[in-house]
């Protein structure tokens, strides 16, 4: 606590909040102009003094600035709350400056975060909301990159290495491609699914998170290439459907596909696998470990349903031909099977990343759990009790920060 109020008020408030009552006066702190050059030795000169106390009372604005800067020079990440003009320099200097409800314009302008409700407990809500948004952004990145890899890599490989006429001389094309209309439909329906990710059900992380692009792109690339492999395999089977010994005709007994139906089959497969990938990308475990949001699930159902209907009754000219119910059902079964394979592959890649702690993917909690397995039960119990105590203190401070304690202390101390 850093306050300009009397020391008696500060001690009583800290006592009620459970913060300790070791409140010092600013006698041991220097004063200087915050606009002048900041001494680089503040952390060395005053860091231990600031760390050893529970707060300061009867301070001037420059003292607040000095305390924040000294802690930052000691290597701490500092958060600062305030409401007055005298708090503005410290709010600006802190890593996270928080202006409480009713703060002056100067404090609001200097702050990084402005609270619109009384007390500090709303910070907890803001943290939970921001971490939920962060989770959705990670899911979006993985899904978007995986879908992009599937589309670009598949068409790149298909154009270069797949020659329909080598499978059947009656096929018109010398290389495989899809009509522009099919690609536009895939993109439009995919965009609807992407938008719904913003409303997905997620579980916020209990610890602060950071961007780990190496991990995100590793997982997305893995998912994308699994989808590419499944698409290339189905394309081979479809083009080889005229072969009596091929998989579709020889093993499954399905009718041969003309080239336009081959393109429709591939269109349906890419569409379905794209929309199913979103359920794989949103969890680190198996896809069913966390239920999706209603809007996301509804958007995916609409997209898959629309793609299925379009492939069964293609309405846009003669570039593609409608598929039979049997072929549509086969594509669905094929996509679901590869969706499960893709999900297992995702779990496997995460397991590898966690095992070798690739790019620091393991959180401090997970590292502590790993260390706890090699420590005694007594040591683990002591650590757990300490963590519970810290959490209880934080929640008590948040709930009591609606300034009732300050008002009570003012009435009793003045």
From TrEMBL:
<feature type="transmembrane region" description="Helical">
    <location>
        <begin position="211"/>
        <end position="239"/>
    </location>
</feature>
<feature type="transmembrane region" description="Helical">
    <location>
        <begin position="175"/>
        <end position="199"/>
    </location>
</feature>
<feature type="transmembrane region" description="Helical">
    <location>
        <begin position="259"/>
        <end position="283"/>
    </location>
</feature>
<feature type="transmembrane region" description="Helical">
    <location>
        <begin position="295"/>
        <end position="316"/>
    </location>
</feature>
<comment type="similarity">
    <text>Belongs to the cation transport ATPase (P-type) (TC 3.A.3) family. Type IIIA subfamily.</text>
</comment>
<dbReference type="GO" id="GO:0016887">
    <property type="term" value="F:ATP hydrolysis activity"/>
</dbReference>
<keyword id="KW-0597">Phosphoprotein</keyword>
<keyword id="KW-0479">Metal-binding</keyword>
<keyword id="KW-0547">Nucleotide-binding</keyword>
<dbReference type="GO" id="GO:0016020">
    <property type="term" value="C:membrane"/>
</dbReference>
<keyword id="KW-0067">ATP-binding</keyword>
<protein>
    <submittedName>
        <fullName>Uncharacterized protein</fullName>
    </submittedName>
</protein>
<dbReference type="InterPro" id="IPR001757">
    <property type="entry name" value="P_typ_ATPase"/>
</dbReference>
<keyword id="KW-1133">Transmembrane helix</keyword>
<keyword id="KW-0812">Transmembrane</keyword>
<dbReference type="InterPro" id="IPR023298">
    <property type="entry name" value="ATPase_P-typ_TM_dom_sf"/>
</dbReference>
<feature type="transmembrane region" description="Helical">
    <location>
        <begin position="141"/>
        <end position="163"/>
    </location>
</feature>
<dbReference type="InterPro" id="IPR023214">
    <property type="entry name" value="HAD_sf"/>
</dbReference>
<dbReference type="InterPro" id="IPR036412">
    <property type="entry name" value="HAD-like_sf"/>
</dbReference>
<dbReference type="Pfam" id="PF00702">
    <property type="entry name" value="Hydrolase"/>
</dbReference>
<dbReference type="GO" id="GO:0046872">
    <property type="term" value="F:metal ion binding"/>
</dbReference>
<feature type="transmembrane region" description="Helical">
    <location>
        <begin position="322"/>
        <end position="341"/>
    </location>
</feature>
<keyword id="KW-0460">Magnesium</keyword>
<dbReference type="GO" id="GO:0005524">
    <property type="term" value="F:ATP binding"/>
</dbReference>
<keyword id="KW-0472">Membrane</keyword>
